[in-house]
Structure formats: C-alpha cells, structure tokens
Amino acid sequence: MTPTITAFESSPDRGQGLARDMRVRWALEEVGQPYDVRLVSFEAMKAAPHMALHPFGQIPTYEEGDLVLFESGAIILHIAERRPGLLPDEPKARSRAITWLFAALNTVEPPIVDRSMATLFDREKSWYAERLPMLDHQVRTRLDQLSARLGDADWLDGGFSAGDLMMVTVLRRLGSSGILDEYPALSAYIARGEARPAYQRAFADQRAVFAAASSRG
Ligand code: GTB
Questions:
Q1: 169 in ligand 1 pocket by Cβ < 6 Å?
Q2: How many CB atoms lie within 10 A of CB 217?
C-alpha cells in the first residue's frame, strides 16, 4: 500500500527543505518506498479533517491504510523498522541507531529550534540582543559534544542510519546562522548526508512544490 504524507502547500522556508516533511521524504527515498504527498494550507491544517490525523494540527502526517501516524520521529522509525536501509540488523547496533534518532530530536533539536524561533519572532524585542548569546551558547555546547563524538567518522555509529538522517536534518536548520562554519567536521557530515541520492530526490521533490506555488503567484 502506498503511504500518503502531508506537507506545507506553501512552506515558509521557500523550498530550503527545512520543514519536517523533508526528513520523512528522505527516509522514504532511502528505503525505496514510493509515496504520495497531500499538500495542506495553514488553514486546512487546523480544520477538522486534518486535526483528526494530527492532534496538534501540524505536518507531517503519515497514512498507510488504516494506520495514521504523526511526529516525524515516530514516522521515520516506522519506515525504518519495516524496510531495510535505515537500521542495522544486529540488535545492539540497531538500538544504538535508534538512540541517535532520539538524541537528534530530544537533545540536539531543542536548542536549535529555540534559537531559530528567537531569530524569526523576537528580533524586535528589547531583550533579544541579551538572549541571543545564551541561545548560541546552548547550541554550541551541543555541537561541541556532537562533533567530539563524531570525530573523523563518516556517520555517528558505523554505517548511515535513521539516526544520521534525523541528525543531518536537525543540523541543517542552523544553515543561515553561520555557527556551522565553526564546525568543519559537522559541516562535512551534513554535506555527506545531502550528497546521498535519496536526499537529492527528496529535496528536489519538496523544492518542486515551492517552485509550483511561486509560478502560480
Ligand atoms: N514534533 C513534530 C514533528 O517532529 O513532527 C513537530 C511538527 C512541526 O513542528 N510541524 C510544523 C508545522 O506544522 C512544520 S515543520 N507548523 C505549523 C503549525 O504548528 O501550525 C517546522 C518548520 C516550519 C518552518 C520552517 N522554516 O520555514 O524554516 C522550519 C521548520
């Protein structure tokens, strides 16, 4: 059965692949699972039919027959557990890869999202200039630790896994901050992820949504 995911009809990132459908698209491409995409407007996201799929009125969602999932991490774990390509077979290595998936979401993504939200919404606030160094410090703390653990390896634990896929998408959100310039090993890690053919296909597909919306005006 071909799953259907949801994505922004008009993404605020203007096709940079920063919205969370990108990671699900990438996972589906990595395992060779064809999928359909239903685009939703901000209004439709908060209307009853979408709220029935996603209790918080967000994207992405994942529908496969009578199975409905939300939360990008849960969706990617579901995909990775059902098709080869994103999790090792060996049980302990598999658990470690899942640990990195959670680490990306629960430990690395929060300070990055906090910083990104502040730069988007709080720039005009009187306390912004004082708060930004603290947010940068929290991001750098995690990047220092992550970079130390990655060392000169290609991926976080052996071969490429769902943990790397999630970590790369999380780190990409720092792209416009300039902070990644201080972390050449992490920049190279992101570039390795972005060079994967599955990433390229997923990126092109989400970019085509932006291009089509732009040409409609
Ligand atoms: N924890 C959930 C998950 O991992 O699936 C979070 C889902 C989520 O935040 N979805 C966002 C959403 O639907 C889109 S991805 N927002 C609409 C709403 O809450 O009303 C977040 C996102 C949006 C835009 C950019 N950007 O423009 O750069 C980046 C990331």
A1: no
A2: 4
